[in-house]
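Self-study notes.
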Amino acid sequence: MPLLSARLPDALPWPELARPLVRAEDALARLDERLRTSPIRDGWIARTHFSDAAATLWLEGELVHLEDLVLHDAGMDVRAPTHELTRAYTVLRARRRLAGAAPGWALSPAGLEALRGRAGEADATHPEVEDPEPVENEDEASDPSIVDDEAFSELFASVDAAIAQADRTLTSERRPAAPFGERDPLVYDLDWDEDARLAEWRAIVDQTRDLPPTLAAALVHEAWSTIEPLQRAPGLGRLLAGALLQDRGKSRAHLPCLAEGAKAVPREHRRSRDAITRLLAELEAIAAAAEEGLKQHDRWLLARTLLLRKLDGRRSTSRLPELIELVISRPLVSAGMIAKELDITPRAAQNLVAELGLREATGRERYRAWGVL
């Protein structure tokens, strides 16, 4: 009998789940408490958005370099964005949206409809639930691309339609592409009943309310992987599992990086035929994500402390403190990014980098980037 179907089983294998569950609960609680009072909490959150988005694509067998994702996010690409980079950027924007939203929004009818690109329909059906705006920074709050109705489905549809059109052109096929906003049958299964599958998944979410939060998150993501409510929505199941942990008070200070944690779990466990093994792998991924996040936090906090020592004797008008906070909040920074954020010239940005002694990460003579690794 499978572990997950339309409802949860009457009896869970508690003897097998007990130790991994306690480890996941403890690790997540330690990280969340450390971040709650940390001076680099905002920087840690901003930085891990990038790494978790790249990890999401890694789990699907696609490689996205952090450097390319950071530069693409800043609008400073050094080459044409690839399909993988575009998908990673979509995950990055979704993480930011969930991290800035109110607890419980992502799992509400309005939240789910917004994430699948149908926020207008959800608002008409559930007018009492508002679609919150991200509050991470003013630039994102004013960016209509983050809060409009085309967050996921239309972006994927447009990209996939362009790829399909290119394939047809190469094969001398002249059938017109599907109109923007409509799903191309060459890319999507039009018989895929997303509404029914999503309703089945939400029923399982409701059944986990009396379970420990980490176990509920593991079951919710396992259910998402089994049911597959939405087509071509990379990493959304893990993002929603992380949102569930926030909603149930287990990670109040951050959105867990579950994709980053899943990288530490052997693939044969994550893709096992045995449902119990997969569930244990989900709990292991939650614990691994929290433990790795704690290590990263302590490393970046130490790096920030060492950089702040270089401010001794500096003038009060020095831009070095702002640069320190910037490099803590980004995996990598370029001269152009520094110049834009600090409102200085690229030459002045390079001089500040030299004063801090940041590590150059690309090995190039042009389009260089620095960071605290």
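Second protein, same conventions, sequence then structure:
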Amino acid sequence: MNGTFSATDRFEAERPGLHAVAYRMLGSLAEADDAVQEAWLRLERSDVSEVRNLGAWLTTVVGRICLDLLRARTTRREEPLPEQDGSVRLPDPVVTELRRVDPEREVLIADSVGIALMIVLETLSPAERLAFVLHDMFDVPFDDIAPVLGRTTVSTRQLASRARRRVQGAAPAADTDNARKHGVVEAFLSASRGGDFEALLAVLDPDVVARSDGGALLPSLLRRGAADVASQAITFARFAAESRIVLVNGTPGVVAYADGRPLSVMSFTVRDGRVAGLDILTDPDRLAGLGLAA
């Protein structure tokens, strides 16, 4: 490392990957930005002349920052479980247009990090989440993760293994063919707009679960079963002046608008050609921060 310019240049090259780490750890785009900025400040204050792998060093710094933020959330009890007492807290969605390439956002959601998986990550303890995200998603060795957690390498490996079992048990495999998923989402949207209850039942898994996060001022909703979800979808569609298919965390989803402002972002889990999960962000404050143009 030679000089401030060199450090700045290297940091900017690592920024997309660091942002991806922070997003997976925190589930918040704004907090991920803050974590990456804090990593830059720590780099400025550090002597890294002897650091041979700056990317690895920065990754563990971001991991430590995110770990502190997650522990602070737990202390303040700000992070309810996805279905605790009927409350629903969805992670921030990464929304992109179908035909627009955004390399930085593609890094954020590489490896099929969909909303459903992000929700499962939110149920892990801070230490489990760090061990799983850094090792299983970014190939950071356990020897490098252990000092961040203040644990032994063996203990850190056990944390990641426990988290892996929970993730695999709570997030069963979904369809991966985006063209097929696009067709399912299109059928759902068409039936909702047309008020076609039977067509909606045909496209919904009988045991579908729909979660809606309305933020602090709006009630959260958790609905189960095709009939209940279909009825709610038809009711909700009446309020949307416009709905269009986009990519939500890299998979087909829907953004709905009313009076020129975003009304909701819908993320779909499609399994065996039917909608098995529907995660809906309706919090107006968080929607306003996503930069969704009508």
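Instructor comment on the second fold: DSSP finds twelve helices and seven strands in the chain.
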